[in-house]
Amino acid sequence: MPQYLVTGAAGFIGRSLAAALVGRGDSVRGIDSFISGKRSNLSGLEAMEFLEGDLRNPADCARACAGVEVVFHEAALASVPRSVAAPAETNDNCVNATLNLLIAARAAGVRRVVYAGSSSAYGDTPTLPKHEEMAPNPISPYAVAKLAGEHYMRAFTRVYGLETVVLRYFNVFGPYQDPASQYSGVLAIFCRRMLAGEQPTIYGDGGQSRDFTFIENVVHGNLLAAAAPAEKVSGQMMNLATGRRFTLNETFAILRDLTGFKGEPAYAPPRRGDIRDSLADIGRAEQLLGYRPQVDFREGLRRTVEWYRKGNPA
Ligand code: UD2
Questions:
Q1: How many CA atoms lie within 13 A of 117 on its CB side?
Q2: Is residue 252 lining ligand 1, measured as CB closer than 6 Å?
Q3: pLDDT (tens digit, 0 to 9) for every residue of the chain, 314 residues total?
Q4: What is the number of domains present in the chain?
Q5: Structural domain of residue 223, as residue ranges?
Q6: Looking at residue 152, which CATH number applies to its domain?
Q7: Residue 79 resides in a domain
Q8: Fewer CB atoms inside 10 Å of the end CB: C or N, the chain?
Q9: How far apart are the C-alpha atoms of 295 and 61, rounded to whole Å?
Q10: Residue 191 within any structural domain of the chain
């Protein structure tokens, strides 16, 4: 029986986490519906037991959770603009799916669920850095949906005693992030376009900033969250980020050096549902998990550009 379940195992973050678990010799099951995950992301994960399934379906959740000790819940439709275009779809795949998964996890005797939360929960409040005591202020349907999942986690700990840990990710980037969709993360899109010599588009004036977090830091935080003592972390929510922020204009300049792109960005009107600035206080994850960022932004970008330059994704 696998010890770990990774939902969204064919997606960017799920795939990376599953690879780390498999790499250290753990037994892992992955599930993905391929709505946004890619079959090609499963290559290299042959040691993982894979289920094609959809968390909107309770029977698939039950199959996925059977015999598992710890669940990493990474499956989601991860995009603010996608949720603006289709809020019900985001709700089904984030909120309903998460509730189904929790019900199945409890029924199967899963010990702990580690949940991929989102920095979007903080919304557009001017206070920086964002710390966990701040009242949530979700703006987009996506932010609402990811925040609802957080509340379900805490409720399942309080009411049923299921161990849950919420990690609020801040703009994760790195190898295996899909650059090809209009709903992709900005750095994946910029890497792909600039390596191809195509002009990237900045929505707004480019002064908006993000605590861009390299994927290895997120994997590291998840492994710590799975292993930490329940009395320290169960029912807790914490930021998972770097504690540094870069504007899109700064990011473009760094990428110009890394990719050799010669042009300027195009500027277009700001995106609906966007927030201006995002920066994490990472003190709580440091205190509760012993978390420290392993790879800084520039090094993460360098590795990411190299990955796309090699012709990935295949
Ligand atoms: C939100 C969350 C993030 C994660 C993500 C879903 C915040 C602060 N962050 O990311 O934690 O949950 O949703 O994967 O809420 N942009 C351009 N040009 C492009 C594409 C994007 O300028 O071609 C801009 C976009 O308008 C935004 C910034 O880049 O200002 C980042 O956009 P994103 O879609 O990469 O991520 P974001 O911040 O919505």
A1: 29
A2: no
A3: 679 999 999 999 999 999 999 999 999 999 999 999 999 999 999 999 999 999 999 999 999 999 999 999 999 999 999 999 999 999 999 999 999 999 999 999 999 999 999 999 999 989 999 999 999 999 999 999 999 999 999 999 999 999 999 999 999 999 999 999 989 999 999 999 999 999 999 999 999 999 999 999 999 999 999 999 999 999 999 999 999 999 999 999 999 999 999 999 999 999 988 899 999 999 999 999 999 999 999 999 999 999 999 988 86
A4: 1
A5: 4-172+213-243+279-294
A6: 3.40.50.720
A7: yes
A8: C
A9: 34
A10: no
> Is 156 a member of any domain?
yes
Atom of ligand 1 nearest to the CA of 190: 23
Q: Is 142 a catalytic residue?
A: yes
Q: Which amino acid is at 124?
A: D
Atom of ligand 1 minimally distant from the CA of 140? 15
* Tokens linked to 163: 């161990």
CA-to-CA separations, 193 to 80, 132, 198, 206, 265, in angstroms, rounded: 21, 35, 5, 17, 11
Mutate which of 166, 171, 237, 267 to test ligand 1's pocket (most atoms within 8 Å of Cβ)?
171
Written as six digits, the tokens of 177 are 């992030």
Centre of ligand 1 from the C-alpha of residue 168, in Å:
15
Residues 6 or more apart whose CB falls under 8 angstroms from that of 268 comprise 201, 202, 203
Task: Locate 57 and state its tokens.
Answer: 């379906």
Please state the φ and ψ torsions of residue 160, each to the nearest 5 degrees.
-115, -5
Domain membership of residue 185 (yes or no) is: no
